[in-house]
Amino acid sequence: MERIHYAGGVLLTGTEIADAIVDYAAALAARRTAASVDIPVRTEDGRTARAHMLIGPASQLVTEPVDSELDELVDEDLVASLRSATTALSSTRPLVGPDGSDGSDDIDDADTDDLEWPPIR
In which band, very low, low, confident or very high, does the pLDDT at 93 lie, cut at 50, 70 and 90? Predict the structure, then answer.
C-alpha cells in the first residue's frame, strides 16, 4: 500500500496505482496540462471508497510505502489506462523519417488519441 499526500490530505491506495498516478502526473506536467482521475482508496475504518483527483503541472504529490494489514488495493484496468495515457503523453516523433521526409503528411497531431474522455475512472 502507498500513502499519497495530495492537496493537504492523505489518500491510502495500492502501490501500483500510486506509482502510475505519479508517473501520469509527471507526464501531464511536462505537457503543461491536467487531468482528473478516480482511484480506489482505503478509508480510515478500512473500507474501500473512491477518490477523485485533479493532477497536472501544479500537483505536488508525495508517496510513501505503508505497512498495512489491509488487502492491497488493485485495479489493473486503471493502472493499464494510466500507463497508456502516460505513454501517449511521453511519446516523441522523429523530425526526419527513415526515408528522409519530414513525415508531415503522416503525422496525426492528436496526441490524446489513446486518452479516455471523460477522465479515467
Answer: low
